[in-house]
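User: Just a sanity check before I run the rest of the batch. Below are the structure tokens for the first item. I only need the designed sequence back.
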């Protein structure tokens, strides 16, 4: 378990279900505190258990304006189907005051369902794996921290994608 998971009071436990990864990010208010609180809130998901959390990473917005983001990735086990899990994540976002005034707007909290096992899905409401996870260093580096041998459905191993995203400014902050 990472230091971030320990500081959030998270402990691994056995839960049946898929191996799932959730991206956590914020760039409004005290973004680091929000990300830590959101990691703890993931522990409240039904039929789910947080197994690991990455360190926090600071990154510049991509295709957007505003303050730097603070990001992390959590690994979960969950018996929830992808759409049900996405709905639960959006409920947590709303509790944190998430608004969606326009595409790529600054965010109080952003929870992205990155991977749900090896599932591949393209629907109006959900794309798995997350459509840009293999292009974003702020996702790849935390993923590699907690799951270095992870193989991305559709994209393969993490290492070549981390190299390809190497020009993106990302700094580990915890």
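Assistant: Here's the designed sequence for the first item:
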């Amino acid at each position: 378990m990472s230091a971030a998971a320990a500081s959030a009071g998270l402990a691994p436990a056995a839960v049946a279900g898929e191996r799932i990864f959730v991206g956590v990010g914020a760039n409004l208010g005290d973004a680091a505190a929000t990300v830590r609180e959101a990691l703890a809130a993931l522990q409240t998901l039904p039929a789910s258990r947080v197994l690991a959390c990455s360190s926090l990473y600071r990154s510049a917005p991509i295709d957007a304006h505003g303050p730097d983001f603070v990001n992390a990735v959590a690994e979960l086990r969950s018996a929830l189907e992808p759409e049900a899990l996405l709905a639960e994540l959006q409920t947590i976002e709303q509790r944190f005051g998430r608004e969606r005034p326009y595409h790529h707007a600054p965010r109080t909290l952003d929870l992205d369902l990155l991977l749900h096992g090896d599932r591949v899905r393209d629907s109006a409401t959900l794309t798995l794996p997350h459509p840009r996870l293999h292009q974003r260093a702020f996702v790849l580096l935390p993923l590699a921290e907690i799951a270095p041998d992870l193989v991305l459905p559709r994209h393969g191993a993490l290492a070549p994608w981390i190299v390809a995203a190497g020009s993106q400014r990302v700094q580990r902050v915890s």
